[in-house]
Amino acid sequence: MALLDWPGKSAPEGGIEHPAFYHMIDVAAVAECLLGALSISVERKAFYVLAAGLHDLGKISASFRDMLGEGKPQSAGRHWEVTEAFLCEFDRHLASIAEDVSCRHDLYAAIAGHHGRPPVQESFDRMIRAAGREAKPDALAALKALIALWPEACFDLPGDEVAAQTWWLPGLIAVADWLGSNPLYFPPVAPGPGAKDYLDVARGKAAAAVRQAGLDLPAVSQAPVIPEDWSLRPMQQAAQVISLPDGPALALIEDETGSGKTEAALILAQRMMLAGKGAGLFFALPTMATANAMFDRCADLVGRLYETAPSLALAHGRAGLSHRFRELIRASRSPAQPSCTEWLADDRRCALLANVGVGTVDQALLSALPVRHAMLRHYALSQKILIVDEVHEMGDPYMVEELGHLLRLHRRMGGSAILMTATMPMDLRARLCRAFGCAPPESRAYPALTVAGHGQITDLPPVKTRGPVRVVRLPERDAALGLLQQAAAEGAAALWVRNAVDDAIDAVQALRARGVDAGLLHARFALCDRMRHEQRALATFGKAREDRPGRVLVATQVVESSLDLDFDVMVSDLAPIPALVQRAGRLWRHMDRRPAGGRPCAAPVLHVVSPDPGDVADRLWLRRVLDRGAFTYSLDLQWRAARALFAAGQIDAPDGLRALIEEGLSGGTLPEALAQAEEDRIGQGFAQTDLAQQNLIDLSQPYRGIKGFADDADFPTRLGVEQRVLVLARRAEAGLVPLDADSWTVDSRQRSEISAAARRLNGLPLPDQSAPEIAAVKRDWPEWLQTRLTLCPVAEDGTICEGLSYDPEAGLILGSSR
């Protein structure tokens, strides 16, 4: 059988088969394009390209051909696993790529493992026998032909680099294979041209494919990323001048909310790219809401980073619901402004490959966990400046361990990173610096711009003109209600941040009973209603709001960082210091638009609903005042926050912020009644750290040695209260339809989703998922979603089942909430 007679994939109906050998050259040509901008040796670049070409050597196999033509299962290894068997069989012909045989074998597993996980190591002899007698000589001929196309190929790195390379290489090959397998870019070609002639054709197609998919790299601009008519803030000015080291760099931007940290990060990232430390950006945010807000904020600026328009993508599970993102999606790259190709927008993993990506930190953390296609995420991020925002929100022991591991992984492939925060504790800062391999700064100065182990700029003048925020304790709920009622009557924009959703619902009902115009915002709304309430909150309390709206918003933690809101009066349930500082950042926020003289109150005051920290009789100290909100955070941290905050009497940002944060997290002698809470928190932290260390990939092991990757494996990016996802539906003549739509699509389903604690839902008689009306809808969903999502019809009066109802203005109401 001739080499070009082995098929690469099923032929289109009435069409021709594309030879497997041509497909291998297609993928190599794509890899060659993707590698074009990397500053690496000619020999290593040729090795990567050759590796990409060899990825499907196992398709030269009778078992693969019979699977395509006759539907027979491949009983002795799938084609990508047979690739490893052939490479090991032909090892002597590949001796020139690396001297050490064990190194070569680790690389063979990486080449074959481009389908999301390492190949299963079975009997290679059995695989080769199943491939058939005709396959082995043709596979060897293909290998020799590919080597002849890139004869200089050599893995010119020391042996201790193998583990890192074997985690990165399958990602490169997977991306090249996805493009090289796309018939829109590489339509089938009948057998005919020889290897060299076909490569010339494939190179032209590959260049067009990379460009049309949005993966080509525009040149970095040397023009300022911030428009010249903007007045740069102190942190942004510091980003222009701080010295950068040779090699990978870790920068930390620590400044108060509203100080322009995002623009400072863009200035610094542009300088890093010009210095060769990356070719793109990925913004990693703690939540989808904060990612959406960042996407909206930076979409107009990132185009200024490059000489020509970059590709720009939003990377999280509900990106398709972002109106701004949908406006950018086009079939091919726009030459005039940032855009996202349909190929990039089709998959969260693809979205990471855009020149500039914005998404949840989870998408980045998955590159450090043994989950399918983790190596593709790692490859995508390795060429980018990783910008992690709101780092303080990733401070639980599990996520800290993951984030540190991600920084190690990113650095070992030459990646640089920027961390942004308003309230990061010093011990967290030190851990992340050490994870990146740099000495942490010793200075306690705040604000500060630090390049870890290299330099620091402090003594930055404050941005805000509101002055210190006075802190007043409110001893109980009714005092908060009375204060907010009076504030609304005086025309104020007022906020009460509650720690628990049930408490927020209770508070808004109590305010409305007093005749107060009060809105509600929390995470237990169906997404369609949450988006509506967010827009209402932005219109009423946002940057461009009326000066005296005379309204109250009751909200949970969702207002801490994702929405740009400005309040005259603020009440907050007691919470740890970092959360309280974030909340206070929404108080008297836009002083340029609403100076002190125009506000309905004399000064900014944070009123905190809290018992007296000096009078702790038992563990119910906080429960008597905050109800369910007493259990949202660890009791010892809340007591320390109360002690530090009420002793200080104010939040003095930026000068006193560092001391307040540190005192609020570790200062003072804990009352004996609360000692067990601290012991429990520390013990849980050790357990979380241990679990993270078990889950994360072992950076010392090559790709083959990393355990995991099973389809049903569960390696979470974050811990916390287990959530259950409901899909709310209403009854119509045609059957069940989404809550706010007339037909089922991915978007309408996602807009109807709502999450709540599984422990509270599991005891309720939720609708039977095998009921005909429910089964009729779910049968069209992917199988994994059918088991993950619970479809819940909502009656006209809001009832879902006994103990559970839904109100578009109040959210999901659990009968046991009060």
UniProtKB/TrEMBL annotation:
<keyword id="KW-0479">Metal-binding</keyword>
<feature type="domain" description="HD Cas3-type">
    <location>
        <begin position="13"/>
        <end position="179"/>
    </location>
</feature>
<dbReference type="GO" id="GO:0003723">
    <property type="term" value="F:RNA binding"/>
</dbReference>
<dbReference type="InterPro" id="IPR006474">
    <property type="entry name" value="Helicase_Cas3_CRISPR-ass_core"/>
</dbReference>
<keyword id="KW-0067">ATP-binding</keyword>
<keyword id="KW-0378">Hydrolase</keyword>
<dbReference type="InterPro" id="IPR050547">
    <property type="entry name" value="DEAD_box_RNA_helicases"/>
</dbReference>
<dbReference type="GO" id="GO:0051607">
    <property type="term" value="P:defense response to virus"/>
</dbReference>
<keyword id="KW-0051">Antiviral defense</keyword>
<dbReference type="Pfam" id="PF22590">
    <property type="entry name" value="Cas3-like_C_2"/>
</dbReference>
<dbReference type="GO" id="GO:0016787">
    <property type="term" value="F:hydrolase activity"/>
</dbReference>
<dbReference type="InterPro" id="IPR006483">
    <property type="entry name" value="CRISPR-assoc_Cas3_HD"/>
</dbReference>
<dbReference type="GO" id="GO:0046872">
    <property type="term" value="F:metal ion binding"/>
</dbReference>
<comment type="similarity">
    <text>In the central section; belongs to the CRISPR-associated helicase Cas3 family.</text>
</comment>
<dbReference type="InterPro" id="IPR027417">
    <property type="entry name" value="P-loop_NTPase"/>
</dbReference>
<dbReference type="InterPro" id="IPR014001">
    <property type="entry name" value="Helicase_ATP-bd"/>
</dbReference>
<keyword id="KW-0540">Nuclease</keyword>
<protein>
    <submittedName>
        <fullName>CRISPR-associated helicase, Cas3 family</fullName>
        <ecNumber>3.6.4.-</ecNumber>
    </submittedName>
</protein>
<keyword id="KW-0347">Helicase</keyword>
<comment type="similarity">
    <text>In the N-terminal section; belongs to the CRISPR-associated nuclease Cas3-HD family.</text>
</comment>
<dbReference type="InterPro" id="IPR011545">
    <property type="entry name" value="DEAD/DEAH_box_helicase_dom"/>
</dbReference>
<dbReference type="Pfam" id="PF18019">
    <property type="entry name" value="Cas3_HD"/>
</dbReference>
<dbReference type="InterPro" id="IPR001650">
    <property type="entry name" value="Helicase_C-like"/>
</dbReference>
<dbReference type="GO" id="GO:0004518">
    <property type="term" value="F:nuclease activity"/>
</dbReference>
<keyword id="KW-0547">Nucleotide-binding</keyword>
<dbReference type="InterPro" id="IPR054712">
    <property type="entry name" value="Cas3-like_dom"/>
</dbReference>
<dbReference type="GO" id="GO:0005524">
    <property type="term" value="F:ATP binding"/>
</dbReference>
<dbReference type="InterPro" id="IPR038257">
    <property type="entry name" value="CRISPR-assoc_Cas3_HD_sf"/>
</dbReference>
<dbReference type="GO" id="GO:0003724">
    <property type="term" value="F:RNA helicase activity"/>
</dbReference>
<dbReference type="Pfam" id="PF00270">
    <property type="entry name" value="DEAD"/>
</dbReference>
